[in-house]
Amino acid sequence: MERVGQQVSVGCVSGRGFTLLEILVASAVLAIVAVGSAASIVTTPRIMRDADESSSIRAAVHGMVSELTAAEFGTVHATYNNSGFAVAGVTAVDGDSDGLPGLITIESIGTGSALYYKITFSVTWKSINGTRTESSVHYVSNVRGDTAPPTES
Q1: Short-list 91, 68, 93, 90, CA closest to 81
Q2: 71: alpha, beta or left? (left if phi > 0; alpha if psi -120 to 50)
Q3: Quick one: pLDDT band at residue 152, thresholds 50, 70, 90?
Q4: Could you give the CA distance from residue 148 to residue 116 in angstroms, rounded to a whole number?
Q5: R_g of the chain, CA atoms, integer Å
Q6: Cα–Cα distances in Å, from 74 out to 1, 69, 78, 80, 137?
Q7: For residues 88-102, average pLDDT
Q8: What are the angstrom distances between the C-alpha of 135 and each of 54, 102, 104, 125, 151?
Q9: Is the pLDDT of residue 114 over 80?
Q10: Where are the beta strands (DSSP E) in the chain?
């Protein structure tokens, strides 16, 4: 026996189609996924820029550390203390006195034959997320090969 005129609905057990509630739930899930995807697309360039800035800062500080450790120990403080340095791809904050985002400060530690310089490299720059600062501390000794920092009291 053959039935004529019966309709078949795909994806629905009852044969009547999707209910309004099912359509609303599916639309809400789709909207949540779309908003999440759009947010990640918008924030990815910011994250990449932030990573590029941090990488440039690490490279500039590494270069300055190499320069300071190669310099004559007795001239390091007079030559580099309170001096600025450039960082590729990073802009100094408005009002910076020398227009360079990096600053080197040097503090003498110890006396006699064992003298150390505590060298702080600070970089303050205009980021897409506002003003940011990163600092790094390194020690240089007048004894060649001695890079261990002294114990400070």
Answers
A1: 68
A2: beta
A3: low
A4: 10
A5: 31
A6: 107, 11, 8, 11, 19
A7: 90
A8: 11, 9, 10, 12, 20
A9: no
A10: 83-85, 102-109, 116-127, 130-141
What would the two tokens of residue 97 be? 């006195």
Three-class SS state of 21: helix
CB within 8 Å of 54: residues ≥ 6 apart? 134
153 is written with which tokens? 């009291």
* pLDDT tens, residue by residue, 8-65: 455 555 567 889 999 999 999 999 999 988 888 888 888 888 888 989 999 999 999 9
Q: For strands 130-141 and 116-127, give the pairing.
A: antiparallel
Q: What is the mean pLDDT of the chain?
A: 84
Reduced to 3 states (helix: H, G, I; strand: E, B; else coil), residue 44 is: helix
